[in-house]
Amino acid sequence: MLEGLEPVKNYRCKAKNTADSLDDKDKKIFIEALSDTDKWSDKGLSVALSQRGVNISNEAIGRHRKQLCSCYR
């Protein structure tokens, strides 16, 4: 029955998952903030989002910004 059991792999990064979970207006704001490294540090963006109920770590933001996440594989 369990032959060939394999772990489920999620190749999408947290930034992509977060963007996809938001309505269109908030998604646009999130993507713009994610792109604006002059205005938003990784940590600053993570904290601001957390205060609004959107949980994403500064590490996940940094990986996405540096194109080290699964979005760029």
List keywords for this structure.
elongated; mainly alpha; 73 residues
Question: Number of DSSP strands?
Answer: 0
Radius of gyration: 15 Å
Major sheet description: none
Number of helices: 4
The average pLDDT is 93
Low-confidence stretches: none
Distance between the termini: 33 Å
Shape field: elongated
Strand content: under 5%
Q: What series of H and E elements makes up the topology?
A: HHHH
Helix content: 40-55%
Structural class per helix/strand content?
mainly alpha
Helices and strands, with pairings:
Blueprint: H1 14-21, H2 24-35, H3 42-51, H4 58-65
Describe the structure in your own words.
The structure is a single chain. Helix content is 52%, strand content 0%. The model has no long low-confidence stretch (mean pLDDT 93). The protein is built from four helices and no strands. It has 73 residues and is an all-alpha fold.
Task: Please provide a brief summary of the model.
This protein has 73 residues and is an all-alpha fold. 52% of the residues lie in helices and 0% in strands.
